[in-house]
Amino acid sequence: MKRILNLEGAINLRELGGYPTKDGTTIKYNKLLRSGDISNLTTNSLNYLKKYGLKYVIDFRSNQEQQTWSDVTSDFYRIYSDPVYPLTGNGDKLAGAINHGDYSYLGLIYQSVVLDKHGQEAYRFLFERLLNNDQDHQSVLFHCAAGKDRTGIGALLILKALGVDDEIITKDYLLTNLMYQDSDEIEATLNDENGNQDINKMNMTKGDLESITSVFEAIEHYYGSFENYLDKALGIDQTKLAELKQIYTE
Predict the structure, then answer these.
(1) Number of domains making up the chain
(2) What's the pTM?
(3) Is 9 a member of any domain?
(4) Which one of 21, 35, 109, 110 is at 20 to 30 Å from 89 when CA atoms are compared?
């Protein structure tokens, strides 16, 4: 299966299906899409997404971004405005309190977002929509402008909740770096002999992994565990987490 969907008018559009979980299951295809700007989707792209089963679009961009570069509307999906910024600022104080000089700048920003009250409200809304997406052949697309930071945080929270390993989560995050390179280079880097795209072929440094795991470390520092964070910050208790896994894994 193609992980990178090169649709006209979309930036950094990617499939999250196919990743293995620690439970021995796999994330279902045609359920989860992450993306950057989709304000220029063409008719052909819309036809593809309709067949794909797109039902819900979650827009993490600011109100100004949404007004300036509005998502293309269509009758087969509903768009939800869910700005991640502006943050309230409490996450900065919390993240700074556990930084011992070894976390990357990007890691600190991401920590601030996941610990911030407004940031948490935005991702709580995302998870509520994910629970609503409980019908077969229906999918959720969540996006920001570049599909890297606000969308990247959403993806790492979803993948972690579904039981995907940190290293795989990091490699999925790093695919954004490839997306802004030449498309032929992407194909040469990822494709196996059957034309499937395999992120295990990606090179990842120790620093890359640390920038993502530092986010989970911050969450565990303040909430005791990632599961407790899901419950207290995002409203996903054990029952809802089981529902999520039922909807999105097989």
Answers:
(1) 1
(2) 0.92
(3) no
(4) 35
